[in-house]
Write a structure and sequence with these properties.
six-stranded mixed sheet; 419 residues; OB fold (Dihydrolipoamide Acetyltransferase, E2P); alpha+beta; 12 strands; 15 helices
Amino acid sequence: MAEVDRDKIIKELSTNLIVKRSNIVYQHMRDPALLRYYYSIKTQAVTDRLDMAGSSPTEIFVGRWGYPKVFIGPMVPPEFGDTSLLGTPERWKYISIEDIVRFRSKLVRGMYTTNVHDVEKGRIEERMRDLALAEKPADVELEFLKKPAARVNFFDEVQPFGPSASIKSLDMGNVRSDKQLEKKYSDTDATATTAMIELYKNNLLVSQIQRALSAGTLGIGTKRKFVPTRWSITAVDDTLSKHNREEVKVFEPVDVIYAYYDEALDNRWLILFMPGNWQYESIEAWWPGTVWNEGGKEISMIGSYEGYKGRSKYAEMGGCYYSGRLAVTEKLQIMQKQAKILILREVHEGYIMPVGVWNVREHVRQTLEKEPAIMHTKTELFSYIESKLDIKRKDWIKNSRILSDMIKQQSINDYLRAK
């Protein structure tokens, strides 16, 4: 950190001067190491004991290491009451990264080893199911085998959470299930895909559907299993967006270019709906010092594309591709149109921590609520791109299948007219 004595700040934090010197802490929260350290200090109250109790925001975590034997367990904060905000990313659109890390770092992850196929074979497995089906936060008591590790955990697809520890015992108060989730749990003849789509059409939050899938409560009865949390997130985004995509293909294409723009968490979003049958592309540009380009010297760009028939391989850019696709297909359903879709995302220096792919789904949704700029020509389009984004048109074209095809098509038309 330029002109800052990093060791001095950390020493002040570690000697409980956080309250007295909070101005120092928040002034330098742009440093990922300090942010991690600060919240590890804040979690010491729950990491210095072998038990805890609180109201879980109906959230569970299923790991993937060692699959099919994995860790499962509840996510529990050391507080009671309505903790639903902690587990509902659909409500985080206007919250800063620092505040997201602050309240998510409260969640302690209990860990219990089981086989993913043993969804009905034990008491803790049963409790995970009850928690995933619950309609509101549930009171949970945990006893650990050892004290939780004092750290905040960050992943690409998954929202951050706090300390973790293996479970010795777990008790829960009476839990009332969400009626729709309970109905799908009882329907052991419906496939997981059918259940997910029906829940989504009945306006259940995507995050609720993801938890239900992860807990092994959806699908053909004999085939149900725990699904690692990060896999379930992408599986739901992928499944629902494929369903939406096929529905919008029956609509007429848009007849003008719609350009939606917004900024959030130091990300710039420019989403283009262009005339033509369904195509979808998403491109991310990561500035040096950001989450996935921390040690880079230059801007790093990555993108993924699909044509009218979709794609058969997992997207190069990961789960963000599918969460963005879900949001844009929702907008097309509202418009009753299909289009060539291009998401251009600039990730600037302020995006210092991964907070999960919900960030893409919810901020694309938010961007598409804005009033769009309307354009009719490629010249207008490229001028608009350069007016909103720092990266020049030549670099977007170089990395975009849709934009490069647009330029090639223009060149062919010019050639034919010249003849």
